[in-house]
Amino acid sequence: MPSENFSAGMTQSGRDTLYVFQAMATPCEVRLETLNFTLAEHVARVVETETRRIEQKFSRYRSDSVISRINAAGGAPVEVDTETAMLLDFADQCHRLSDGLFDITSGVLRRIWRFDGSDRVPDAAQVNAVLPQIGWNKVKWQAPFLTLADGMEIDFGGLAKEYAVDRAVALARQITETPTLVNFGGDLCVSGPRADGSRWKVAIESVDRSGNMAAMLELSHGALATSGDARRFLLKDGVRYGHILNPKTGWPIVAAPRSVTVAAATCVEAGMTATMTILQGKNAERFLKREGVKAWCIR
After folding, report:
1. Which Pfam families does the entry mention (predicted)?
2. 72 confidence band (pLDDT: 50, 70, 90)
């Protein structure tokens, strides 16, 4: 359900109405090019309701979520609904396209990795103890049934937020033709260009967390998603450990870019590609060039 004090999150500036709320552990924005407060409020309520539905359904932190039900099955098969099956199919495709580097079973590594900016890096024995519980290839997935080995888990952390952005824009389009931008923590999608045909202006944040812009992008269609280590990292003995982990080794990707922003038709596609680029490490730019991806890479 939307926030209790809904109107407090609504502001108007220039020709836009903006609604801000917090969900999925990130700031969420819905911006419509209109001063029709009633219309903007309706769209914003629908978007927040859908976002909280997705958060509840796919959060690993909620005991009543689909993810928790799957992870608590103890090796028994779990029947999933059509929406969950769609995301599992996408995760399976990403796993194959990335040669196993994009793996939704690798979330168990959060038990030993805490990317809080400290110097608490786990030792090799701790990492090696978790590795047997990782590997999408060990999972039996034949829709609508998913079977995990006992002790394994799945985590939609790399998909759910981007999926929520795409759903939000799709619902906004069903309500109105008013130009709309949905931005969840820097992952965003637009319904189309501005009313006068111009592009939306979107800032890419600097990786040094200074609040400065690294670049200003313009977007008229589709989505942008960013992956990087600006907020989640460890720093020990002058070595920075980014939060994107190699599921095959259990350790952060070596020589990865600090930030990758990708443009794509959907936010899910952009987010997946940004993460896959980081997973290429020193070959990130070569990967982007080979795949013909429109992206901005910061080292």
Report:
1. ApbE
2. very high
Lowest-confidence range among 34-43, 50-59, 224-233, 272-281? 224-233
Prediction pTM value: 0.91
In one letter, which amino acid is 126?
Q
Range of the domain at 166: 6-59+159-298
Dist CA 245 CA 248 (whole Å): 9
**168 and 288 assigned to the same domain:** yes
Pair (104, 238) in one structural domain: no
CATH code for the domain in which residue 122 is found: 1.10.3980.10
User: Is residue 1 included in any domain, yes or no?
Assistant: no
Residue 179 CA, chain-centre distance (Å), reads: 23
